[in-house]
Amino acid sequence: MRPALLGMYGRKGPQIKQAxxxxxxxxxxxxxxxxxxxxxxxxxxxxxxxxxxxxxxxYAIFAMEAAEKRFEMLIKQAKKLGVSLxxxxxxxxx
Length: 94
What we know:
By secondary structure, the chain is mainly α. 79% of the residues lie in helices and 0% in strands. The protein has four helices and no strands.
């Protein structure tokens, strides 16, 4: 067969396979980042619960808001890439 006739229905070139592998790795890394950001957010909430004086409370609020914003940013990025956290376990196994 002539390569020009293969088109998008022909054999997959190494570039396409490599691009898919890179996209999968990006999605896996994003899922790991989302999980870590969520843990950070939960830890910041716990820190707020046990803050005693004004400075500790102010810091806890700042840390909690920052962690929440980072988590929201990563979720938006996941939506752009079409990453479903429901399928995250399947993506992480590959």
